Amino acid sequence: MAVVGATSGPYDQRMADQNPTVGRPVRRGVFLLPNLLTTGTLFSGFYAIVAAIDGNFERAPIAIFIAMIFDGLDGRVARWTRTESAFGKEYDSLSDLVAFGLAPALVVYQWGVAKLLEYNLVWGRIGWLVTFFYAASTAFRLARFNTRTAVVDKRFFEGLPSPSGAAVVAGFIWCAHTFSFSGLPALVAAFGVTALIAVFMTSRFYYSSFKSVKLTGRVKATYAILVPLFFVVIALHPQLVLLVMSGGFALSGPAVAVWRKLRRRPIEGVGTP
After folding, report:
1. 148: which DSSP letter?
2. Which of 72, 75, 62 is nearest to 103 (CA)?
3. CB 212 within 8 A of CB 134
């Protein structure tokens, strides 16, 4: 292994000849790329809030899902280009709070709280508190994640990840708007879902991070056929499919916890949630 500052040997010279990029410092422009993607997350969350204020409850949930795409890319790009930084980590958390905490809470607020006030003042106050509880739970979830990154098993998330929680809330509002699900039962269901997701985010349930899944290697022909079929189903009813997928993932945490409790089988390396 070469020592930093030592004269490069024949092996290092051969590597430099074969790959001209070896040993060169990363350009400043590369550091900008992951932060631009994080800015995309922030902008999508901001746009979702503006769309909700304007009463556009179709574009607002879509913007939250787009924020999830940006959020999934920025960290991976930073790791691929080896441009991770403390600044990027903090910027990512602040953007996540806007896109997956404030934006879903305000979308639900704009969609339902004003209507709840028409039924009863108490219902309106409950809705207001539920949406704040969701935003505060997201902040708590992100702060806990940042402080426990070094000690938590990388295979699992402790508590429902904030993007997944936002997907459930946004998907519900998107479906309710598309399929004209309205009235007091719809409003109560919306705030019930929002409160439940907030509890899941602050819980000790463990959720798979899917970091152990390998995308390389051979797969069965059946899986190759199911992939395009999956995208066709999403294209037909994206709001319903995304709600079912995100809702199923949100319920997987408590479901696995109950199953392991009954079987008395703790998760290896992390204990029983």
Report:
1. S
2. 62
3. no
pTM of the model: 0.80
| Integer Cα distance of 90 and 56 in angstroms | 31
Residue 157, beta-bridge partner list: 207
Using an 8 Å Cβ cutoff, are 160 and 95 in contact?
no
Q: pLDDT tens-digit profile of 66-76?
A: 999 999 998 88
User: Which residue has tokens 């410092």?
Assistant: 25
Helix (H) or strand (E) holding 128, with range, is helix 121-147
Could you tell me the domains of the chain?
29-209+235-263 (1.20.120.1760)
Which tens digits make up the pLDDT trace of 23-54? 445 455 557 888 999 999 999 999 999 999 99
* Cα–Cα dist 219/210, whole Å: 17
- CA 129 to chain centroid, in Å, comes to 23
* Tokens found for residue 171: 């998907």
Burial 143-152 (b: 16+ CB within 10 A, else e): eebeeeeeeb
Contact between 130 and 247 (Cβ < 8 Å)? no
Helix 59-80 and helix 86-97, axial crossing angle in degrees, nearest 10:
170
Token pair 């079912």 is found at 244
